[in-house]
Structures are given as structure tokens and as C-alpha cells.
Amino acid sequence: MNDDADADDDDVVKDATLASWSWAAASLLGAWSSALIFFPRALLFAAEEGQTLTPLEGFLALHFGILLAAVSLALILNIPSAQPIPQRLQHTPPSHPLLVPLTSVALLSAFLSYNTRTAGSLPFLFSLCTGTVGIWGLWAVIFAGPTRVSHKTGADKHTSAFIFGNKAAASVQKRYFQRKNARGPQK
């Protein structure tokens, strides 16, 4: 019985240690992120020569700062709790803890780099890469997991008949099913 209490105390200490590390790491990364995003000219103090940042250096400082901010946010969002975590409901699909923060940062970075014209072709290539990651992540957030299938009609509930009149959409299948059953049995 005493062993169970010692094990629980060890778990609480480990959770507190991990939480402290997460907050400290997030604070440090957040500070560096803020410095790179809002004060990129501070990089000139580290350089031996140079009076101004080149557009490429400014571009890289901004996007590295955004990435550090995303990692900092992900660390904060994934701090373990000391209480037991309740079991996840069965209808929620499993998700990666970094999916939403990195998807939103990738989309923001793609937008900003697409609108940067002073650093040559690198911003456009960077925009393509981060845009691909962001759009794919957005697709995973919206459509990942098992399909939701109607029990009555067997249609996939992720489909829609909105713009193009999809005949396989769940709403169309349901209307067809209701009309068919309203007429009664066919002879």
C-alpha cells in the first residue's frame, strides 16, 4: 500500500518536472521568437560586418521566428497534467498534438513568404513548401479519421451536394431514401 503512494508521488514529481521544463523552454523560445520577428536588426550586433540586413536575412529571421513561436506554443499546449487524463470519446479521431499549431503557422508563413518580393526566388519556393504542408495539415484537421457513414442510406456524411449536385451526397441519398419509403412497398 505504501508502494502505491510512493509511485503516485514519483509520477507527480515527474509531471511537475516536465511541466517546468516545458514552461522554461517555451519562454526561452518565445523570447528568441519575439526578438527575431520584431527586432531582426539585432542580428547585426552578432555580425562582424554589415550595416543593414539583406532582404534574405530579414526573410529568414522572420520565418525562423515564426517557427520558434509555433514550437513554443506547441510546448505550452502539450504540458502534461498531474491529474489522470480522461479517456477520449470513441467518435473523436486521434490527432497529432502539433497538427493544429504547425498547420496554422505553415499557412501564415506561406502567405507572408508569397507576398515577399525582395529576397529573390527563395520566398516563392518557401511559400510552395509551407503552403503544401499547411493545406495538407488543414485537410488532415478537417477530413482525417474514419468516415462517418449514414446508418440508413450508407452514404458518406463528408460529401455535399452544395455546388455541383453530387448524387452520392448524404443529403441526396437521405431524400431519395425518404421518398422511396414514403410511397410504400413497390409491387
Write the SSE topology:
Layout lengths: L1 H37 L4 H4 L8 H23 L21 H16 L7 H22 L26 H13 L5
Helix pairs in contact: 1-3, 3-4, 4-5
Keywords: Membrane, Transmembrane, Transmembrane helix
Sum this structure up briefly.
With 187 residues, this protein is an all-alpha fold. It contains six helices and no strands.
Tally of strands: 0
Mean pLDDT score:
72
Silhouette: elongated
Q: Count every helix, treating DSSP H or I runs of 4 or more residues as helices.
A: 6
Distance between the termini: 72 Å
Return the string of H and E elements. Answer: HHHHHH
Share of residues in helices:
55-70%
Rg of Cα set? 25 Å
The profile of the biggest β sheet is: none
Share of β-strand residues:
under 5%
Low-pLDDT regions: none
Helix vs. strand class:
mainly alpha
Transmembrane segments: 21-39, 59-77, 98-116, 122-144
Keywords: Membrane, Transmembrane, Transmembrane helix
Could you please describe the fold and organization of this structure?
With 187 residues, the protein is mainly alpha-helical. Helices cover 61% and strands 0% of the residues. It has a domain at 147-187. Helix 3 (55-77) runs antiparallel to helix 4 and helix 4 (99-114) runs antiparallel to helix 5.
Keywords:
elongated, 187 residues, membrane, transmembrane, transmembrane helix, mainly alpha
